[in-house]
Amino acid sequence: MTQIEKILFIPDLHCPYHDERAWKLMMKAAKVFKPQIIVILGDFIDCFAISTYSKDPSRALGLTKEVSITLKKLDELNSLGAKQKYTSKVIMKTDSRDIYKTKLLSYSTLLI
């Protein structure tokens, strides 16, 4: 009999401009669900500071702060304990955000 793997999909968080209440609810559900695989579908970080899209000055945190907050969210995902043998975290390439691929992938051995 084939074992079913639990997968948590996380679409377009746009950290740090995400809805923190929604993030906390997702994390609460994920702790109960206990996923073996976590798939980040794209736009995990917003990259507002380097984006070419029109900008609202009230959202400007700066690149360093955006990355710092995003890395904390990745720590939270790591705390879920998804097993590395199941490719615990997957970051897919998305439009102009590829500049962070190397930085985010070097963050954790669980990221591929």
In a few lines, what is going on in this structure?
By secondary structure, the chain is of the alpha/beta class. The chain has helices at about 20-35, 65-80, 100-105, and strands at about 5-10, 35-40, 90.
Overall description:
33% of the residues lie in helices and 12% in strands. It has a 3-stranded parallel β-sheet, with no helix packed on it. By secondary structure, it is α/β, with parallel strands linked by helices. The protein has one domain. The protein contains 3 helices and 3 strands.
- Percentage of β-strand residues: 5-15%
Major sheet description: 3 strands, parallel
Category from helices, strands and their pairing: alpha/beta
Strand order of the largest sheet: 1-2-3
Task: Please tell me how large the radius of gyration is.
Answer: 15 Å
State the domain count: 1
General form: elongated
Mean pLDDT: 75
Count every beta strand, where a strand is a DSSP E run of 2 or more residues. Answer: 3
How helical, in percent, are the residues? Answer: 25-40%
Order of helices and strands: EHEHEH
Ranges with pLDDT <50 over ≥5 residues?
A: 84-112
SSE inventory with pairings:
Layout: E1 7-11, H1 20-33, E2 37-42, H2 63-78, E3 89-91, H3 101-107
Parallel strand pairs: 1-2, 2-3
Key structural traits:
single chain; 112 residues; alpha/beta; 3 strands; 33% helix
